[in-house]
């Protein structure tokens, strides 16, 4: 008998099929890394397989064709990418759904899963619905989109997203804020809040030494203005000159040059260190090296970088933009009004003077007790078990 089978007998091990279009396709990608981390955690307790899918817009126009890529990099679970060739405009989305669903039927015809877990209602929600009907097993959807309305790029996408959520056996939202937004569009649906997981490797040794310059951290994608780096730069420009600090800016994207130019225009270029992309494995080192972290986002369904900073024992500053209100309390940091530069400036000045007064061990334990792997798996296990009636 295999070790896997022996483990399955000792604990009721479920077979879980995870579906997501948000997923890192290599070790350098942050896209949907929280989905991979959830899969990683669940794979310690259950038999997990992941299918991610996206359209290959660089391909020639072809119909119902895809490439399969094995994404496994020493993980405990199987990860497969379905890269669907583009087709004609408008028809492209139908071609995408049909091709992915058809391939799932082929690849998993003789497999037996207990439950399907989709991430984000469009497009993964519809594929989960179709797969659920075909295999006659329940599906759940975790909604991460921020803002939720970003999924409504057309009336048909809105219809599909809401239909997929309505038909799910359970909807999971990563924050109470997202929970409440979904209820504006759907009534009488079953929603449970389960925050994103903080994997064990993110918890690191705490350093409390006082640096010559206080190091302020920011980390986020720079392809849009969602993360609010411009708000941070304006706030930095108003900080009293008596403070000796530097802002460590991690992240890359099409707006990076624009933000660097803004720092030059504001005369704060010497206080800003643009580090470019930070490899996912190096995020914990980035957090160890700063004194406190700032996330001035315009909207967040959760804010996983906040709990990553907390895992290093660092106090945090965040905007009231959805998810952060459920993470930040006076013991771990400061909340400021969304897009309010003046409030952010005052919050940073306060933190520059008081960051060492925070109990860094308590901050780390706060993160572990609310977002650690054991807590996360326990919540998901209850949801899954209830749906498959174990």
User: Rough shape?
Assistant: globular
Strands, total number: 14
> Which structural class fits the helix and strand makeup?
alpha/beta
SS strand fraction = 15-25%
Question: What's the SSE blueprint?
Answer:
Elements: H1 3-10, E1 15-20, H2 33-42, E2 47-56, E3 66-70, E4 78-85, H3 91-107, E5 115-119, H4 121-135, E6 139-143, H5 155-167, E7 170-173, H6 176-185, E8 191-193, E9 214-219, H7 229-237, E10 245-250, H8 256-265, E11 272-276, H9 283-289, E12 292-295, H10 304-311, E13 316-320, E14 333-337, H11 341-354, H12 360-371, H13 373-388
Parallel strand pairs: 1-2, 1-5, 2-4, 5-6, 6-7, 7-8, 9-10, 9-12, 10-11, 12-13, 13-14
Antiparallel strand pairs: 3-4
Helix pairs in contact: 3-4, 4-5, 7-11, 10-12, 12-13
Protein model, in words:
The chain contains 13 helices and 14 strands. It has 390 residues and is of the alpha/beta class. The strands form two sheets. It has an eight-stranded mixed beta sheet with strand order 3-4-2-1-5-6-7-8, with helices on both faces.
């Amino acid at each position: 008998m295999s070790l896997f089978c022996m483990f399955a007998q000792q604990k009721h091990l479920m077979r879980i099929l995870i579906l997501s279009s948000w997923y890192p396709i290599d070790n350098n990608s942050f896209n949907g890394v929280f989905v991979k981390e959830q899969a990683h955690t669940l794979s310690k307790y259950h038999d997990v397989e992941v299918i991610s899918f996206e359209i290959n817009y660089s391909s020639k126009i072809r119909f119902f064709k895809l490439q399969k890529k094995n994404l496994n990099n020493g993980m405990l679970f199987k990860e497969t990418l379905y890269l669907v060739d583009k087709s004609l405009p408008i028809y492209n989305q139908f071609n995408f759904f049909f091709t992915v669903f058809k391939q799932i039927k082929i690849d998993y015809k003789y497999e037996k899963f207990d439950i399907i877990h989709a991430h984000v209602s469009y497009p993964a929600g519809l594929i989960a619905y179709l797969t659920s009907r075909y295999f006659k097993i329940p599906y759940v959807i975790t909604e991460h989109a921020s803002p939720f309305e970003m999924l409504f790029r057309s009336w048909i996408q809105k219809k599909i997203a809401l239909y997929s959520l309505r038909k799910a056996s359970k909807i999971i939202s990563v924050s109470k804020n997202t929970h409440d937004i979904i209820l504006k569009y759907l009534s009488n649906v079953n929603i449970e809040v389960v925050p994103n997981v903080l994997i064990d490797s993110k918890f690191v040794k705490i350093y409390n030494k006082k640096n010559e310059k206080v190091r302020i951290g920011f980390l986020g994608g720079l392809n849009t203005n969602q993360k609010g780096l411009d708000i941070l730069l304006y706030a930095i420009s108003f900080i009293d000159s008596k403070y000796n600090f530097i802002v460590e800016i991690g992240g890359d994207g099409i707006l990076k040059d624009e933000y660097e130019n803004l720092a030059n225009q504001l005369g704060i270029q010497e206080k800003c260190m643009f580090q470019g992309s930070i490899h996912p494995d190096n995020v914990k080192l980035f957090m160890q090296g700063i004194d406190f972290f700032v996330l001035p986002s315009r909207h967040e369904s959760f804010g996983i970088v906040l709990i990553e900073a907390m895992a290093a024992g660092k106090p945090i500053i965040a905007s009231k933009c959805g998810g952060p209100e459920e993470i930040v309390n006076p013991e771990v940091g400061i909340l400021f009004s969304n897009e309010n530069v003046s409030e952010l400036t005052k919050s940073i000045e306060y933190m520059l003077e008081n960051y060492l007064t925070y109990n860094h061990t308590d901050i780390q334990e706060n993160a572990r007790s609310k977002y650690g792997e054991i807590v996360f798996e326990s919540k998901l296990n209850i949801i899954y078990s209830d749906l498959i009636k174990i």
